[in-house]
Amino acid sequence: MARVYNFSAGPAVLPEEVLQQAAAEMLDYQGCGMSVMEMSHRSKEFKGIIETAEADLRELMGIPENYRVLFLQGGASQQFAAIPLNLMTTGVADYVVSGSWSKKAWKEAKRFGDARCIASSEDGNFSYVPDVDALEISDDASYVYICQNETIYGTRYPKLPDTKGKPLVADVSSCFLSEPVEVERYGLIYGGVQKNVGPAGVVIVIVRDDLVPEEDLPTVPTMLQYKTQVDNGSLYNTPPCYGIYICGLVFKWLKAQGGLKAMKLRNEEKAALLYDFLDQSKLFKATARAEDRSIMNVPFITGDADLDAQFVAEAKEAGIVNIKGHRSVGGMRASIYNAMPKAGVEALVAFMDKFEKAHA
Ligand SMILES: *Cc1c(COP(=O)(O)O)cnc(C)c1O
User: Fold this and answer.
1) d(Cα 358, Cα 360) in Å, to the nearest integer?
2) For 255-305, how does the pLDDT look when each residue is reduced to its tens digit (9 = 90+)?
C-alpha cells in the first residue's frame, strides 16, 4: 500500500491515525458487535459518539455555553439558504463577496430577502479580501456574512470586520479548526467538514442561542429550521452517523496534537515553506495578494497553461496528487489542511524546485 501526498481541496486528506482507528473498529465498535454504520442513531453507543464529539469540539474551540452545536446534512451549500431563512428577520442582510463561495451564498440569500453585496473583490478576480474597515453596514441588516477562507482563490480574512453590533456569520468550511477562534465574535459559524475536519456528508453549525428562532417558522421546511435541530440535538431524523463518528475521531486527534494553537503553528510553518519557495521562484507565482494569503489553500501558476498541465501530470507520477487548480481558475492549488504532514509540503517544494530547474 502506498499512500500519496493528497493536496485535494475537498474531500481531502484525513489523519492516517484516524483512518487506522476507523479501520480497526470497522466490524466491531467497542465490543458492541457491529459497525458504527449499522447501529441505531438512538442507541446508547451512538449517543456516546455524538455527545463526545460535541464536548471535544466545544473544548477545542472554546465554544461558550450560549452557543449550540449542530451536526447536519446538506453541506455548506444548504446553509446558504438555511442562514437567511432563519436569521434574516429584518428582510435585509449584508454580504461581503470575496470569492465564488460567498458569491453563491449571497445569490442564494437574494431568493429570500434583500441580501446586499456591501463589498466585493470580483474586480481583482477575487485575489484579495475587501477592506473590512471600509464596510458600510446597513442599519437594518440582520447579520453580516463573510466566507473567512475562500478555498478556490486562496484568500483569508487577515482580520474580522467590525460589524457595528450586527451578528457576524462566517463560512469557515476550508479553515475550520486550522487555528484558534474567538467564537464570541460570531453569531454563527459553519462549515462543511470535508475540507479540514472529516468525510463529506456533515456540516457543522455553531449558532448563538438568541439567533435561533423561538417559534416555528410556518413557511420554512422543518429540516431547515435551526429550532428543529436545536430542540432535537441534531437527531430530528437520522443524522450522518458515520461522518459524525469520524469527525469525533479527528477532534480526539487534534486534542492529542496539542489543540488549535499547535495546529496554527504547524499550518503556518507549512504555508511559509510553500510561499517562501513561490516568492523566490522564477517560474511559479502565487496568485493571492500577500496580506490575504490563506494558510490552507495555496493557488499558484506558471503563467503558461500547457506548462501547468505538464506540472500537474508529472507531479502525479511523483505521488503528489490533486494539485490541479479549480476548474474556474486553472493553474495549480495545493490544499495543505491539518492532516497534510510537513513532509508532504517539503516533497511538493522539492518537486517544484526540480521542475523549475528542468525548465529554466
Ligand atoms: C467547499 C465549500 C463550500 C461548499 O461545500 P458543500 O459542502 O459542497 O456544499 C462552501 N464554502 C466553502 C468555503 C467551501 O470551501
Assistant:
1) 6
2) 999 999 999 999 999 999 999 999 999 999 999 999 999 999 999 999 999
pLDDT, tens digit (0-9, with 9 covering 90-100), for 134-159: 999 999 999 999 999 999 999 999 99
User: What is the rounded distance in angstroms from the CA atom of residue 348 to the CA atom of residue 275?
Assistant: 12
Instruction: State how far Cα 172 lies from the chain centre.
Output: 4
Centre of ligand 1 to C-alpha 76, Å, is: 5
**8-state DSSP, 324:** B
- The amino acid occupying position 45 is E
Distance 191 CA to ligand 1 centre (A): 7
Number of continuous H segments (helices) and E segments (strands) in the chain: 9, 14
In the residue annotation, 101 being an active-site residue is answered as yes
Closest atom of ligand 1 relative to the 75 alpha carbon: 7
Tell whether pTM > 0.85: yes
Q: From the CB of residue 62, how many other CB atoms can be counted at a distance below 10 Å?
A: 13
pLDDT at 310 over 90: yes
Is 195 a known active-site residue?
Answer: yes
d(CA 247, CA 195): 12
Tell me if residue 106 is catalytic: no
Residue 77 CA: nearest ligand 1 atom is 9
pLDDT at residue 24 greater than cutoff 90:
yes
